Amino acid sequence: MSSPAKPPAEKITTPPPTNPKKKPFSSPNEMVTFIVGTGDKQETFQVHKQIACEHSEVWNRAFNSPFIEGKTQTYRIEDTGPEVFRLLTQWVYREKFDCIHLGDLDASHGDDLDSMGQCIKEDGILLSLWVLAEKFLIHRLQNYTMHIICKKGTACRQICPSYYGYVYENTVEGSALRRFVVEQSCWAAQPFVNELTNSPVEMLRDIVTVLKAQLPANVRARKRSQMTEENYLVEEYPATES
Fold first, then answer.
1. Start and end of every BTB domain (predicted)?
2. CA distance 55 to 63
């Protein structure tokens, strides 16, 4: 992998002061560079190497390896956007990040179009952040992100179905994020119109599995006993229009 070109200086994001609760830096002036995104949406972030390596074993191995990342102390991430990585950098320094819908809105704002637009955009960023944290094995960030997703649900209702495909394309079977969107879809108080038509086939299977598991045995037995052949016969001599 060749060394990437450096974006314009005005797009370089510098880190905030270190959290005083963290252990002292062994090399406070040692920085690593992350080049995030592609094209005109690309940004460069500089992070203290110790902070990056302490939070991600993937980064620790990369920046201390004989490969290009170790030689250049630069890591390129093309499959996410700067707005997502910005939250990640906030979290590795502060163990929290800025979020629009935390206390700013309540359930009464759920039908406001501007608020809904903000909610949908932020949902996409948070889902991408969870996926990014999984990629780099930052499990505490995954859990913090899930905490934020759940907390903002009062204002934003459920995850927009347009993101279901992204979740299933970027996670594996049994993923906690998959389980969340499936169960939220099952038990949503106000389901989205045409929600199921936007759901991946795998998700529909998971929804059916979850719903079937909620049926008590006596209900299953009663419904099974009601399955008589008369319910499934076809018209042998259908009437024809005259």
1. 30-101
2. 13
Residue ranges per domain, the chain?
7-94
Q: Residue 190 contacts by C-beta under 8 Å, 6 or more apart in sequence?
A: 110, 157, 158
pLDDT score at 104: 52
175-200 per-position pLDDT tens digit: 999 999 999 999 886 666 677 788 89
Secondary structure of residue 31 in the 3-state scheme: strand
Burial 59-73 (b: 16+ CB within 10 A, else e): bbebbeeeebbeebb
Sequence-separated contacts (24+) of 189-196 with Cβ below 8 Å: 189/157, 190/110, 190/157, 190/158, 191/158, 192/158, 192/160, 192/161, 194/161, 195/161
In CATH, which superfamily holds the domain spanning 7-94?
Potassium Channel Kv1.1; Chain A (3.30.710.10)
CA atoms within 13 A on the CB side of 22: 17
Three-state SS for 199? coil
Regarding pTM above 0.85, the answer is no
Q: Give, as one character, the DSSP assignment of residue 18.
A: P
Band of residue 10 on the pLDDT scale cut at 50, 70, 90: very low
